């Protein structure tokens, strides 16, 4: 079964079997995970998390799913990574789906290409469980999602303000939500927010934005990148938003390195193609091998799943994108 984000939110309490969440909308991912974790806590369902670093890690996942918990009758196994199970893992997945009706396997993955969505792993879960695309491709979908966020904050925007907000954030839902929070704090008594309120609030409070950080990173300007990063931290920009910005640039650079003729197809704006090409010329492709693991460490640190300092790790990422390594790799 396929569900969109809003449909999935309504089915969180009844979720069992196998679910896959995939996409690159951090707001949607975090909201759904928060809803799942709240539901598990309220129903006294034990939660375990596994991060996939190799195919072999799936063995630990299925061992956990098929074991009896000492703490509760039901288990929720939360799996993060972009590694699909092998043939033996798929066999175990099918056995789990057929014989275990009480536990939940929740797999959280990044954006997938069309070939991946046709893989046996996705097809098996779609046929016997739930697959959720964490996307909002159309303006009306993004506005519906952000309207819910705005209602929770007690903010109402007119249609022109919605259009301006989307254009200002280039459809980045997490950044848009952050702006809604600022507007709610700045104009607590305003019944309806108009473009002028958004402009006044966002322009006054943000001398630098994550878009400025992206530009500085692509230019390889380490000093300016660190300065912008420090300003964003001081102004209350969430680490998750900066991780989204940095991971997007890393992903696009790695994809462009593999597909140098397909800049527009992989999502690079026409006016930015030359900036990415120049960045590739000064970067050492060997460094790309370390980027995915570094991003996973930042994500874990932000979520409190490790003792590492997320801001220190983000600065390490910034240095990497500027062609300067804080560590020497073998």
What does the secondary structure layout of this molecule look like, with pairings?
Layout: E1 2-3, H1 5-10, E2 17-22, H2 26-42, E3 46-51, H3 57-65, E4 75-80, H4 87-99, E5 104-109, H5 114-117, H6 120-128, E6 130-133, H7 139-153, H8 159-168, H9 173-186, H10 195-205, H11 210-219, H12 222-234, H13 239-258, H14 273-282, H15 291-302, H16 310-321
Parallel strand pairs: 1-6, 2-5, 2-6, 3-4, 4-5
Keywords: DNA replication, DNA-directed DNA polymerase, Nucleotidyltransferase, Transferase
GO molecular function, one term: DNA binding
Protein name: DNA polymerase III subunit delta
Please characterize this protein's 3D structure.
The chain has 16 helices and 6 strands. The protein is α/β, with parallel strands linked by helices. It has 3 domains: 132 residues, Rossmann fold; 67 residues, Helicase, Ruva Protein, domain 3; 112 residues, Zinc Finger, Delta Prime, domain 3 (Up-down Bundle), CATH 1.20.272.10. α4 links the parallel β4 and β5. α7 packs parallel to α9 and α11 runs parallel beside α13. The longest helix is centred in the last third of the chain and has 20 residues. The protein is globular.
